[in-house]
Structures are given as structure tokens and as C-alpha cells.
Amino acid sequence: MEPPPQPPGAPSAAEPAGCPKDTDRQLRLRLCVLNEILSTERDYVGTLRFLQSLKERLGKRKEMGKEIVWK
Predict the structure, then answer these.
(1) What is the pTM of this model?
(2) Distances from the Cα of 33 to the Cαs of 24, 28, 49, in angstroms?
(3) Residues 6+ apart with CB under 8 A from 55
(4) In angstroms, rounded to a whole number, what is the distance separating the alpha carbons of residues 4 and 13?
(5) Where are the domains of the chain?
(6) Model confidence at 46: pLDDT above 80
């Protein structure tokens, strides 16, 4: 006796239960999420670089006798 056919989208015997093969749409969505994370991280690093350069410039002003204190 043969087992009944699998419904569309159900995991095959070769795939673990609950881990169906990714569809093209799922892969595109994952790529969009990854691109958004990368973009956010790049913006964050750029902001950190800006703040670091600002702190360095203000530190140089302090060395010239200004009363600016950074901890």
C-alpha cells in the first residue's frame, strides 16, 4: 500500500519536518531583510565615525585652552 501524496508545499521525506524548501519569494524577502540590516549597520558605523571625528576636533580645541571636557 502506497502512502498518500503530499499536499503542495509540504516537506518531502528528504526534508526535516517544518523546514520546507525556500521558495523564490522567501529568498527575495530574506535578501531584502539582509540588505536592510547591512544598510542600517553602514549608517550606524558612519555615525560613529562622525562622532569620533567630532570628539577629536573638540579635544584639539581643549588643548588650545578651551574649557571643553569629554569623559
Answers:
(1) 0.53
(2) 14, 9, 24
(3) 70
(4) 13
(5) 23-63
(6) yes
